[in-house]
Design brief:
Oligomer: single chain
InterPro entries: RNase_H-like_dom_plant, RNase_H-like_EbsB-rel, RNaseH-like_sf, RNaseH_domain, RNaseH_sf
Structural class: alpha/beta
Number of helices: 6
CATH superfamily: Ribonuclease H-like superfamily/Ribonuclease H
Protein name: RNase H type-1 domain-containing protein
Radius of gyration: 15 Å
GO molecular function, one term: nucleic acid binding
Order of helices and strands: HEEEHEHHEHEH
CATH class: Alpha Beta
CATH topology: Nucleotidyltransferase, domain 5
Largest sheet: 6 strands, mixed
Low-confidence stretches: 1-9
Pfam family, one: RVT_3
Organism: Acer saccharum
Length: 174
């Protein structure tokens, strides 16, 4: 195991990105009772301020790895759309991160999504992907779970509901 992966797995809380970068955290959850996959994304700056939080309900249940890859792709596109580059996107799905970083596999349902993410990151200098344990991805996870209960997608810019603000405060507290 190389040093960068070791260092990343030792992070147990959310950490801000380097100055001049944005951090995009993404997570997904699936629900079998109500056929749905929730996608959660939060983008923050080096000074810890939240720029955008999003909760998307796919209205279909995907394999967890597919939902995670979809969320990474959605996070990248959201950052690009808002001009929030360069960025580090983080996911707590180690397998998706490895597939994107090293091209481990582009097969099955996840293949086209991974290929799209790899091409997007190659076209964006100074943008990269990293693994973060669930504890360092708590707000994105909360947003993904919340998305399951929404009938419409939600994206908040600059002003956030109290439950999002509470999650951010808990997540960034040291």
């Amino acid at each position: 195991m190389n040093g960068s992966v070791l260092r990343e797995t030792q992070i147990h809380r959310w950490r801000p990105p380097e100055q001049g970068f944005w951090k995009v955290n993404s997570d997904a959850t699936t629900c079998l009772k109500v056929p749905s996959s929730g996608l959660g994304i939060i983008i923050r700056s080096a000074d810890r301020s939240v720029c955008v939080a999003a909760a998307y309900n796919s209205k279909a249940t995907f394999l967890p790895i597919v939902a995670e890859a979809m969320t990474v792709r959605r996070g990248i596109f959201l950052a690009i759309e808002l001009g929030l580059v360069p960025f580090l996107i983080e996911s707590n799905c180690f397998q998706v991160v490895q597939m994107i970083r090293y091209g481990d596999s582009f097969n099955g349902d996840v293949g086209p999504i991974i290929s799209n993410v790899v091409l997007s990151l190659k076209s964006l200098p100074r943008c990269s992907i990293g693994f973060v344990p669930r504890a360092g991805n708590a707000v994105a996870h909360s947003l993904a779970k919340l998305a399951i209960s929404f009938n419409v997608d939600r994206c908040w810019l600059d002003s956030f509901p109290p439950y999002v603000e509470r999650s951010v405060l808990l997540d960034a507290a040291f």
